Write a sequence for this structure.
């Protein structure tokens, strides 16, 4: 009589007196997950556990958070450059008043990050 595992196409290998199932993990790729990807993963784990479990069990969690991380970084670059151009934060300002330039750049960064977090990470 075959086991359910064998009926589903599974095979075993003999190790001494034991039969060990031949299991292979799916190739999930080599994803680099940054700040926004980790934030997305934690958000899903805490606030959307069913969706997190589905992604995890399908083997697509790391791909999902890596895509979110990459999208967030690209979006941050676009938003910060557009805001800096609109508000006149240029190299001339940096040369004239470094502290004002740093203050404005930090303000732009934090505002852009709030937009990205609301649109992509915590959506």
């Amino acid at each position: 009589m075959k086991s359910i595992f064998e009926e589903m196409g599974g095979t075993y290998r003999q190790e001494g007196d034991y039969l060990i199932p031949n299991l292979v993990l799916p190739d999930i790729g080599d994803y680099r997950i940054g700040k926004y990807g980790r934030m997305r993963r934690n958000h899903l784990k805490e606030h959307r556990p069913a969706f997190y479990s589905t992604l995890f069990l399908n083997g697509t969690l790391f791909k999902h958070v890596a895509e979110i991380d990459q999208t967030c970084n690209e979006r941050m670059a676009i938003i910060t450059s557009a805001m800096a151009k609109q508000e006149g934060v240029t190299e001339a300002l940096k040369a004239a008043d470094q502290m004002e330039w740093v203050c404005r750049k930090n303000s732009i960064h934090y505002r852009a990050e709030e937009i990205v977090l609301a649109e992509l990470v915590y959506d």
About this structure: The beta strands are 12-15, 18-21. The chain has a mean pLDDT of 92.
